[in-house]
Amino acid sequence: MLVIMITRIVKMEFKKEEIGSFKRLFSKNKEKIRAQPGCQGLKLLESQDGLGTFFTYSLWESEDHLNAYRHSDLFKEVWKNTKALFADKAMAWSCDEMASL
Fold first, then answer.
1. Nearest-CA neighbor of 56 among 73, 70, 71, 72?
2. DSSP character for 18?
3. Per-residue pLDDT tens for 74-99?
4. How far is CA 32 from CA 10, 59, 71, 78, 89, in A?
5. Model pLDDT, residue 1
6. Which CATH code is given to the segment(s) 6-95?
7. Strand order in the sheet with 39-46
């Protein structure tokens, strides 16, 4: 039985003119991110308000796996390119699952 230890949620707000660039960047890298050791799932969510707010929702086996990804060359490259498109500072949370139905 797989036990997910960490859910990582990142909220990002993009300049309207950069939304397409972000979607292309995510599409180009999503399989590489999902293939990182310990990553058990990855979702990209877009707010329905159409104002350029996106969330990534990723599932990790452990904090060590998440941190290994956050210190990887892949993360550094993707994050540098993603940050350049922001309209505002990103917000991130690491959460422990309390219940799932």
1. 70
2. G
3. 999 999 999 999 999 999 999 988 88
4. 18, 15, 15, 10, 24
5. 54
6. 3.30.70.100
7. 39-46, 53-60, 6-14, 86-95
